[in-house]
Specification:
Layout (H helix, E strand, L loop, with lengths): L2 H11 L6 H11 L2 E5 L6 H6 L4 E4 L3 H9 L1 H5 L6 E4 L7 H11 L6 E5 L16 E5 L5 H4 L8 H8 L16
Parallel strand pairs: 1-4, 1-5, 2-3, 3-4
Length: 176
């Protein structure tokens, strides 16, 4: 069985636990705003929505228009965390997030997702010091095999130096 057939159903039928989950949860417990950054179709929105109190999909025209008209008013009082999916569609929403975080720095308020890297260097970005960025990539073999919660090899070696050999439950071939 090749890798393409082996994993096809697992990606579409159920949520595949991601390695980034633990880091995301840890960051949300400590900081008011987190941004998931990565390539298109890496699972950023799917991962964020699993934690959502409110989801604003800014790629939908009616939602984009409402948020653009009054970002501060839209964000006020929403159930937390507020997911701002594809925030780059309404860049002014970052200013509203900045103001909201400045007014109330409680952890776990916002998760921002975006598929393309905005031109952060061209002007001062309101998220500096307020929105932590977490890089998220496509699926790893470890995630696809259901091993996302296993302690990474490097962590095992650094912790005790005795776990230098990883023994998978099943043999992997070159295609895997």
């Amino acid at each position: 069985m090749n890798a393409g057939n082996r994993y096809r159903g697992r990606l579409t039928d159920e949520y595949v636990l991601r390695i980034v989950n633990g880091l995301l949860d840890e960051m949300l417990a400590s900081f008011p705003a987190v941004s998931l950054v990565g390539p298109r179709a890496a699972g950023k929105t799917t991962t964020a929505v699993r934690r959502a109190g409110t989801v604003l999909r800014l790629d939908q025209p009616e939602i984009r228009q409402s948020v653009a008209a009054s970002p501060d008013a839209i964000l006020a009082g929403m159930r937390r965390p507020v997911i701002l999916d594809e925030w780059q569609e309404v860049p002014d929403v970052l200013g509203a997030v900045k103001r909201a975080v400045d007014d109330d720095p409680a952890p776990g308020r916002f998760i921002l997702t975006w598929s393309v890297r905005a031109e952060l260097e061209s002007r001062v970005w309101p998220g500096t010091g307020r929105i932590l960025q977490i890089l998220m990539y496509g699926f790893s073999v470890r995630e696809l095999l259901g091993r996302s919660t296993y302690k990474p090899f490097t962590d095992r070696v650094l912790d005790d130096g005795t776990s230098a050999v990883a023994a998978p439950d099943e043999a992997l071939n070159v295609r895997d």
